[in-house]
Each structure stands twice: as structure tokens, then as C-alpha cells.
Design brief:
single chain; about 475 residues; alpha/beta; Aspartate Aminotransferase, domain 2; 3 domains; seven-stranded mixed β-sheet; four-stranded antiparallel β-sheet; 15 strands; methyltransferase; glycine hydroxymethyltransferase activity; amino-acid biosynthesis; pyridoxal phosphate
Amino acid sequence: MYPNVRSSDPEVFHSLQGEYERQRDKIELIASENFTSLAVMEAQGSVLTNKYAEGYPGRRYYGGCEWVDVTENLAIDRLKKLFGAEYANVQPHSGSGANMAVYFTYLQHGDTVLGMDLSHGGHLTHGSPVNFSGMFYNFVGYGLDKETGRIDYNVVEDLARQHKPKMITVGASAYSREIDFKAFREIADKVGAFLLADIAHPAGLIAKGRLQSPVPYCDVVTSTTHKTLRGPRGGLIIMGKNYENPFGKVAPKSGRTKLMGELIDSMVMPGIQGGPLMHVIAGKAVAFGECLTDAFDAYTKQVISNAKALCDEMLKMDYQVISGGTDNHLMLIDLRNRNVTGKQAEIALDASGITCNKNAVPYDTQSPLVTSGIRLGAAAMTSRGMMEDDMRHIARLIDRVVTNHGNEDVYKAVKEDVKHFCRKFELYPSLNASADEIGRRVGESVDDALESVSKTVESVVDEVKGIFRKD
């Protein structure tokens, strides 16, 4: 694995090797993480790392961009096809950057925006006071119904009518139910608001039609490219239609009204970014190509089925799942009936070989650094080939740890079980450089070599015998 790093910088290689072994030997349930293909990682580590390419395809500020133009156009075209979009920008370095570009394009400092409260499953960029979104704009938060754990669209409409937001931001980082973008469009139209959908989490599921698409209903859509899209870490912006901007902005020479895509492009670069990360865009192009395949369609179907299996098993063991179920790849577990905090559960599970994150639950009584819940996702382990029964097994492992919170012997036993369980589902076997694996490969190589030598000796002996027969 990574022989050049190994020889030139053993310290960095040591950290890479340790991270590989962590990913290989642990159950990954963080809902925002996934395992890319080797092709995506290869593209991201390619020669495109060396290229500066400020601007856009055909409109660069640097020379020598003919091949990075090809790469970026592939990413753009594939993304448009994937979501049925007329406009796409693949340059944002992150989902947060994509949201920033949209806000800066559509809003003025101090404008009112309606978004899901972070403590109810929203995202930092949906108005958290510690984030630029909450600092620059007047965000009004909507939450989940206390009884159902779901969005109450009537309450959202009441808030919209009361506060008259310039924009409504739709999306979440810990909401397990399908979002009705059509209903949000109707609410936005009643108050004259722009509608932004941030689909960072369910993007891959939406792309394959497993959940309702926001593209026909929203003015603009943002997402990350990792999570359920299973690409490199980055962001994107798309629009179903590239329409004329309503702000009166025109092209300086012709006086033509600029399209919204032009305004967004200018805000991404040079507005908030400089040079795009062309090696990451190459990884995005590869991932979007993978997303267009039947295999990825089957993957998204399995992700949802696996999430439901994990969720149902947790419910059977009397865990409180917010909203009572899941429609997507994740679920939020309220642990208050287990007398364990989210922080305690996260630490205990990590010690047992199961990685997840503590997460606030609606109407939480704990601080954000402690929380009362954990968030679980099925996307990553589905990428490793796990099925419904495997997810049920994971649920029982979680219960074993949580039920025996504080018991180090249980943690140790579960960790060993997890390691053997995970080894059934290989992760990048060609990168595996563990002692056991190297030993196995060396053994195979030695056996092959001995067999080759044996055959060569037999051949030489036969040849010598033939010579003596002739004599």
C-alpha cells in the first residue's frame, strides 16, 4: 500500500496504514461517511493534483487546461444527467461552500431565512449561530413535531407567513424521513421566497429515484459528493432550469439579463474560491459515472433496505427511534430510556469496534457536547456488501455494548467479534498490507515460486535424459 509514501515518509505512512486498518476492522455507522471505489481514489490522487485551473472550461485564467477541461466537462455532464438538471457546478470544495455560494448569490446581509433547527436535525449552514449562515443572516428555525418526530408542514407554513423569509432552506443531517419538496415549494410561493434544497445526505438515493427529487420544485439544489453519492469529499450546485436572474443583473457589454447559473458560477469563483481542486473534480466525474450504472441503482435500493432492517431491530429491542422509523439511509436513536448519553454511547461503541457519532435529539436535555442520542447510517457498510441480516447482527452488537455500558470486558469481546465479522466483507484487499495479509501473500508467492522451480527442474531433467537417449 502506497509504496512511495512508505519509503519517503514512514511517519505519514504509519498514519495511513493505521487508518486503513481502522476502516477495515471496524463497523462504520457514521451516516455522512462511505467507502469510495478505488477508481475514485486513484483519480483523486492523479496528476491533476499538479494543475491550476482558475475559471471554467473554455474560460480559464491559466494555460495548459485542455485536459482538465475534459475532466470537468465530464463531471458536469454526468451530474446533469444524474439529476435531470440544466445547470451544474462541480467546483465547490464542500457542501458548506456550496451553500455559502448560494446564499451570497440570492441574499443580502441580514435577510431572513427559514431553515431546520440544528438541534432538530438541521445543519450548521442552515442558520446555526456559530456558523457564517447564522452570523450573516436572520435565520428562523423550524423543528420536528414533539409527538411524531416529523416535519409539520402546517407549522412551517405558519412560520413562513409570520416571518416572510427571503429564502427557505430545506434539508437535514439527521432526519430519517422523506422530505416533501413539493409542499415546501407551495409554502415558498405563498410568501414569495426562494427555495434551496440541501440534499447532502440523501443525494445518491434521490438520484436513483428512491426518494422525491427537489430538482423540479426548488430554485437551486446543493449537495456534498461523498455520503450516499459515494464520491470524493466535495460539493456541488445544480438547478433544474437555468433561468434569468430576478435581480436585474445584466452583461456589461450586451445588456443581456444574466442567467442564474452565471451568477452562481461567478460567486463560486472568484467570489468565494480561487482555483478548483481538479484532482477532486476528477474523482467526482468518476463517482458520477458510477452513479449512472445499474449497480449503483441496486446499491441505493440495498442501502434503504439495510437501514430499515437496522432500524426495525433497534425498535424490537425497545430503542427509541426518532419518528419511529426511516425512509432513507439513517436513523436517530434517543438513548434517554437507556440512561446513557450520546457521548457515553459513542465512546463505548468506539471501544467495541463500532463507529458512530453522538447527536442531539429533538428537545434534548443534554448539551451539544454530550447529547442524548446517536446517529446511525447504513450507507458505508452496504458498500462493503452487507445485507439485512448483517444489519440486524450489528443492531444486536450495539445493544450488547449499550446494555453493558462501563463493562470493559464486554467492549473487548465485542471488538474481537466485530473484527472477525468485518473480515468477511473485504475492504480494498489490494491495499491490505497487514502482517497477516503480507504473510499470506508471501506464502502464496513462495509456493508459486517453488512450483515454478520444480517444473523447471523437471523440464531440465527431461531434456538431459533426452540427450543421453540420443547418445
